[in-house]
Specification:
heterotrimer; A alpha+beta (816); B alpha+beta (301); C alpha+beta (181); B: alpha+beta; Uridine Diphospho-n-acetylenolpyruvylglucosamine Reductase, domain 2; Uridine Diphospho-n-acetylenolpyruvylglucosamine Reductase, domain 3; Enolase-like, domain 1; 36% helix; C: 181 residues; alpha+beta; DNA polymerase, domain 1; 2 domains; Carbon-monoxide dehydrogenase small subunit (chain C); 2Fe-2S (chain C)
Chain lengths: 816, 301, 181
């Protein structure tokens, strides 16, 4: 009877609260808590000689000041290296509070606790820290040169070094008919969710237990890390994640220094303590990403077929390496996209600099990899005088080659095997959507009006939904309502809605009868977290599996009561009944009552489950062997490996011939994330991703000076786009189901951002007639490129030359 | 990011305000709209010991238009000035500039006079005042004086106001008959401080030939910078005037600096391009103004 | 060193409220922490993001760029006060839900207050005007696509209702009072 919810553009269940001011974000909690603030380093690199708190003690309302000297045991040790990898040469992680040295502006040196944030800031201002300033190491060049090292005891700044190779790429390139080499740069950016980080902790002295609220992407991760630091059994630590005002990756990092200091102080003070990150702190003390340099060498044939690809990557990981080498690993592997080079070699060096740490930001290394590969495809096309889409086409993996093994090890430590996808069709669709074939005429019309326009294209493949696992717990109450819990956390992706859709379908109940809880270790202690576009794949599958268990049990219990065969029963509208006989059945709430044999009745409904209420089989125990009381089920989804979503973006830009302003005229997306649970939500994810892609291509960069000061640590100068900067977006879907999970879904959270820099660079290059090899690009940057181009310092694109009717320079030399 | 403590004064008469200001001297700071001051306080980049909130001085919340021009009181919010039809008719450049000041929500609170005394070289309204040759009325417990825009600005975020003075009113003079104006700017995001901005004024004589051409620049110098560009276009009818030459002339006289959003070279280039655009637009507006005024000679004089 | 405090009285969402605050207490903090109205969010505290936008005497302002003492004697409307007294959602609230105009919800209260005020002045906006109206608010989740749709949809809902269900007498600009301890 009930319409299928899976696949329907259902309005979100989260919204009513959020639209009426009834959301509960971290800073909305703990009204009576003390406020913590952190004294942070003003220097990029320094030795801390002394911390003098004398002046702060006069501040009325001051509760406590802590420095590293106050910390003992695990708290005094460095924070964990979350993702160890054999390629890590020397994995340095920060201390909760500076232990003698600071390695970036913003590093926490002391913690102040006061009655409110105003007073805490007053006290923090009065703490005098004596620094011996050391040489900063800013930028990839300085890190490589290693004239100065970031960490004492190291001879250079190399944190990690990894080579992966499939075939003999260098030999294949040497033997190829055509070769080229490109240097490609992406600058630093950051997630900048509208809500910063935040932690609120309460210590229960009587119970010896901790309740911790954190604005995090992983409740279970924080729980384990904080328990280890505080020397507590995990059973004594509860982590509850409230509404989270956006994450985009930065909140998967844990435990932050603040995340261990706040509960430590709460326990020590026997009082609630809260820290709410402010915007400046978020810029200088959270995490950045994207900063990477790539040297690409490619060998190809006359059709543009990639015979060999050799990529060297220099990755700026900032001051420490707590999140391991996930970002450069993702770049190295996902760079391949939908293509199948004859041989591939990739090598990266991850480098320490005296800047904020680097951890995944939506896309997590993929935007850089796609930038490298797609710029290469454009360069090959230009070299050969072929259509850019055509060169891509000959390199695509065909649907009949699935599953396709790229021969590498992915970020989850498992083989990089694409499970499904129709890449040629994706490309055809995006060409149609943007009007690829008719563009030459469009360009001519624009040119006649004195306007300059260009078109760009970029394809990507995205590994989504990596393991190890995620769990689901589904429980039907005696009121018939269904309570669902999963451990991962939600930052606006609409998980509550899509999980309710899935469970409603599986159990045959109305969505309005399903309540979903995420990120609460009291409800689901086993979990990994929200990252790598894994919410729908992992928790969606887990709750579906758990719901199927519940359904199976409901049918069994009801069949028993109805004296029917379970196979003859179905559930619809929250009622179990004999198929075709809606009258012969019972509500799921009643089934829940019957599923839990009782001695004592506690209300009218529960009488039905008591021991004298119904005939019983005296030969069997009330709870059958292997069964458990209650109408509930738990299950876990642990996939063999990641599932691979894919897509293609195309864009038309206009560049002002005079002012070098760059305007996006239209932006098109073709997206295949397998089966869509909720198209409204998937499209919302794509819109947001595209906006961040546009932001990363045209607006946002972290501007460090040579001393390691971040010059734009505010929303005034770090240019998160407003509505005025984001173009209309057209989206078309393809649905190639994944065989790796029970729902056939693939992740959708990050896709929108991934090809942003690549596709926009492609279009600007096309409009301008000279190569664009570094992103982001501002009007001022474009103006600078035009000057260099006019001065002959940058060679023209060959197609631009050809278009101008000049003879191409056929020397066969690399066109860099 | 919470402001440091300060002593708060909320006078209800101008006399009281001036008394407090006289007493607090260099330790006092005026709070009007607060849209520039409060961010500085929140970031603790400023820490005045005393804040004198003039929001209760209703007498300063006024916009007056007469033959001489537009007088804007110290409490008139940008939004109010922008919405004032007679002010916009008298001096279209007011609205042309105000529409570019940050975003509407900021303009609901921020005051025009506050923006003028804040002396941000990237702000629109100081350029408007400078281009029109306007002035500011300053009062203190010891007297009153009027300072011309040309003398007002000393450096970035620095004006010649004395610590005991309150700017009570800005005077924007009505431009000469036959004048058109335009304000063009390029900002990274709409509503941001401009990378380069140009307010321009062109006056045509009775024969529809260019008699005056001036431009004021934002983000191009430590203070709002006004250039007289008449030599490039003097005596030409607007449709043949070489505004591009005026742009080149302007560029040669400006010496902007680099920042994280733009190189000095790009800024100089924009100044050239935008000068030509703004003058051309202003000239068109002048033609329009004259056309509109001909049947109604009252308005043109 | 004990900071001097000020007693303020203001009407918030139609209800007279009083608070004792230091002069430097930002209006955003006063609403959130002194009055318990945590629906107003703080995203940057330098006036750029717009998350903290509330209506002061009916006009949108950044509550992080105002001191609470400055709101003494004034009328403030927060996201909690947009719905009708009987709980009927404001057309803007309905439209944001219908159009999926929010994701994490953190910036949303600022958009809702801005759009509610905007539609009062411009009940039939074009898409361009709708985009401009929200041009001073940052959202990191939605790419604004569905927010622009929601503004247009809210205008439609408002027109369909024939009148603004929120319409009443304009908030009187109360006499300015100031009290010192």
């Amino acid at each position: 009877m009930s319409a299928r919810m899976f696949g329907a553009p259902v309005q979100r269940t989260e919204d009513e609260r959020l639209l009426t001011g009834r959301g509960a974000y971290l800073d909305d909690l703990g009204a009576d808590a003390y406020a913590a603030v952190f004294v942070r380093s003003p220097h990029a690199h320094a030795r801390v000689r002394d911390v003098d708190v004398t002046d702060a003690l006069d501040v009325d309302g001051l509760i406590a000041v802590y420095t590293h000297e106050d910390l003992t045991g695990p708290m005094a040790e460095p924070l964990p290296l979350l993702l160890p990898h054999p390629c890590i040469v020397d994995g340095r992680t920060p201390h909760a509070l500076a232990a003698g040295y600071v390695h970036h502006v913003g590093a926490p040196v002391a913690m102040v606790v006061a009655r409110d944030r105003y007073l805490a800031e007053d006290a923090a201002e009065r703490i005098a820290v004596d620094y011996e300033v050391l040489a900063p190491v800013v930028g990839i060049e300085a890190a490589v040169a290693a004239e100065h090292v970031v960490h004492a005891g190291m001879s250079d700044n190399v944190a990690a070094h990894l080579v992966q190779e499939v075939g003999d790429a260098r030999a294949a390139i040497a033997a190829a008919p055509h070769r080229l080499e490109l240097d490609l740069d992406i600058e630093r950016s950051a997630c900048t969710p509208m809500e910063g980080r935040g932690v609120y902790a309460r210590w229960d002295e009587a119970g010896g237990s901790l309740r911790l609220y954190s604005s995090t992407q992983t409740a279970s991760g924080v729980r384990a890390a904080v328990a280890a630091k505080l020397g507590l059994d995990v059973g004594r630590v509860e982590v509850v994640v409230p509404d989270v005002g956006g994450g985009f990756g930065v909140k998967i990092m844990h435990p932050w220094p603040e995340e261990v200091m706040v509960p430590w102080a709460a326990r020590r003070l026997g009082h609630g303590v809260k820290w709410t990150e402010d915007r400046r702190e978020h810029f200088i003390a959270a995490a950045h990403e994207r900063g990477q340099r790539h040297t690409v060498r490619a060998g190809f044939d006359d059709e543009g077929r990639l015979l060999g690809l050799d990529v060297e990557i220099l990755h700026d990981n900032g001051a420490y390496l707590p999140y391991g080498v996930i970002v450069p690993i993702v770049t190295s592997t996902q760079l391949l996209g939908p293509y199948k080079p004859g041989a591939y070699r990739v090598e990266f060096r991850s480098l320490y600099t005296t800047t904020v740490i680097v951890t995944p930001y939506r896309g997590a290394g993929r935007p850089q990899g796609v930038f490298a590969m797609e710029r290469t495809m454009d360069a090959i096309a230009d070299r050969l005088g072929r259509d850019r889409a055509e060169v891509r086409e000959v390199n695509l993996i065909r649907p009949d080659e699935m599953p396709y093994d790229q021969g590498l090890l992915f970020q989850d430590g498992r083989p990089l095997v694409y499970d499904s996808g129709d890449y040629p069709r994706t490309l055809r669709m995006v060409k149609e959507l943007i009007g690829w074939e008719g563009f030459a005429a469009e360009r001519e019309r624009a040119r006649a009006e004195g306007r300059r326009i260009g078109i760009g294209l970029a394809c990507y493949v995205e590994g989504t939904g990596p393991g190890p696992y995620e769990g689901g717990h589904v429980q039907v109450g005696t009121d018939g309502r269904v309570r669902v819990a999963t451990g991962l956390t939600s930052q606006g992706q609409g998980h509550h809605t899509i999980l309710a859709q899935i469970v409603a379908d599986e159990l045959g109940v109305a969505m309005s009868d399903v309540e979903v809880t995420t990120g609460d270790t009291r409800r689901m202690p086993y979990s990994v977290g929200t990252f790598a576009s894994r919410g729908a794949v992992m928790s969606g599958s887990a709750v579906a599996l758990a719901a199927r268990k519940v359904r199976e049990k409901a049918l069994r219990v009801a069949a028993d009561a109805l004296e029917a065969d379970p196979g003859d029963l179905e559930i619809a509208g929250g009622r179990v009944h004999v198929r075709g006989v809606p009258g012969a059945g019972m509500d799921l709430g009643t089934v829940a009552v019957l599923s839990n044999p009782l001695r004592y009745a506690f209300d009218e409904a529960s009488r039905a489950a008591t021991q004298f209420a119904r005939p019983a089989d005296h030969a069997a125990p009330p709870v059958p062997e292997g069964d458990a009381p209650g109408l509930e089920g738990t299950d876990f989804h642990s996939p063999l490996r990641s599932t691979f979503a894919n897509g293609a973006h195309a864009v038309v830009v206009e560049t002002d011939p005079e002012t070098a302003e760059i305007t996006i005229l239209r932006y098109c997306v073709v997206h295949d994330c397998g089966r869509l649970v909720n198209p409204l939500i998937v499209e919302g994810q794509i819109h947001g991703g595209v906006a961040q892609g546009v932001a990363g291509a045209l607006y946002e960069r972290m501007a460090y000076d040579a001393d390691g000061q971040l010059l734009n640590a505010s929303f005034m100068d770090f240019l998160v786009p407003y509505a005025s900067e984001i173009p209309p977006i057209r989206i078309a879907h393809l649905e190639t189901p994944s065989p790796l999970n029970p729902l056939g879904v693939k992740g959708a959270g990050e896709a929108g951002v991934i090809p942003g820099a690549a596709v926009i660079a492609s279009a600007i290059e096309d409009a301008e007639g000279f190569p664009v090899r570094s992103m982001p690009i501002s009007p001022s940057d474009l103006f600078g490129l035009r000057r260099r181009f006019a001065a002959g310092e940058i060679p023209p694109l060959r197609r631009a030359e050809r278009a101008r009717g000049r003879r191409a320079n056929e020397t066969g030399e690399p066109d860099v | 990011m919470k402001p440091p403590p300060f002593h708060y004064h909320a006078p209800t008469t101008l006399a009281d305000a001036l008394t407090v200001l006289g007493e607090t001297g260099p330790h006092g700071k005026i709070l009007a709209g607060g849209q520039s001051l409060i961010p500085l306080l929140n970031m603790r980049l400023a820490a005045p010991a005393h804040l004198i909130d003039i929001n209760r001085l209703a007498e300063l919340d006024r916009v007056d238009v007469d033959d001489g021009g537009v007088r804007v009181g110290a409490l008139a919010r940008h939004a109010r000035v922008e919405a004032d039809r007679s002010a916009a008719e008298a001096i279209p450049l007011l609205r042309q500039g105000l529409r570019l000041v940050a975003h509407p929500v900021i303009r609901n609170r921020g005051t025009t006079v506050g923006s003028l005394v804040h002396a941000d070289p990237s702000a629109e309204m100081p350029a408007v005042l400078a281009l029109l040759g306007g002035s500011l009325d300053l009062v203190s417990a010891s007297g009153r004086r009027t300072v011309a825009a040309a003398d007002l600005y000393v450096g970035p975020l620095e004006s010649c106001l004395r610590a005991d003075e309150l700017a009570v009113c800005a005077r924007f003079p009505r431009p000469a008959p036959g004048t058109g104006t335009a304000f063009v700017e390029i900002a990274r995001r709409r509503g941001d401080y401009a990378v380069c901005g140009v307010a321009a004024l062109v006056t045509l004589d009775d024969d529809l030939r260019v008699a005056a051409a001036r431009a004021a620049y934002l983000s191009m110098a430590p203070v709002p910078h006004v250039l007289d560009l008449i030599e490039a276009v003097a005596g030409r009818p607007p449709d043949t005037a070489d505004f591009a030459a005026a742009g080149r002339l302007a560029r040669g006289r400006l010496d902007p600096e680099d920042d994280i959003h733009a190189t000095a070279e790009y800024r100089a280039h924009l100044a050239e391009v935008l000068t030509a655009r703004a003058l051309r637009e202003a000239a068109e507006a002048a033609v329009g103004a004259l056309g509109a005024s001909r049947p109604d000679p009252e308005r043109a004089t | 060193m004990n900071e001097e405090t000020h007693e303020i009285r203001l009407r918030v969402n139609g209800v007279p409220r009083a608070a004792t605050v230091p002069a430097r207490r930002l209006l955003s903090d006063c609403l959130r922490h002194d009055l318990g109205l945590t629906g107003t969010h703080v995203g940057c505290e330098h006036g750029v993001c717009g998350a903290c936008t509330v209506l002061l005497d009916g006009r949108p302002v950044r509550s992080c760029l105002m001191f609470a003492v400055g709101a003494d004697g004034h009328e403030v409307t927060t996201v909690e006060g947009l719905a009708a007294a009987d709980g009927t959602p404001h057309p803007v609230q309905r439209a944001f839900r219908e159009c999926h105009g929010l994701q994490c919800g953190f910036c949303t209260p600022g958009f809702l207050t801005v759009v509610a005020a905007f539609l009062e002045e411009n009940p039939e906006p074009t898409e361009e005007q709708a985009r401009e109206a929200i041009g001073g608010n940052l959202c990191r989740c939605t790419g604004y696509v569905n927010i622009v749709r929601a503004v247009l949809r809210a205008a439609e809902l408002r027109r369909a209702a024939g009148r603004d269900p929120q319409a009443g007498d304009p908030a009187p600009r109360g006499p300015v009072r100031r009290q010192r301890p």
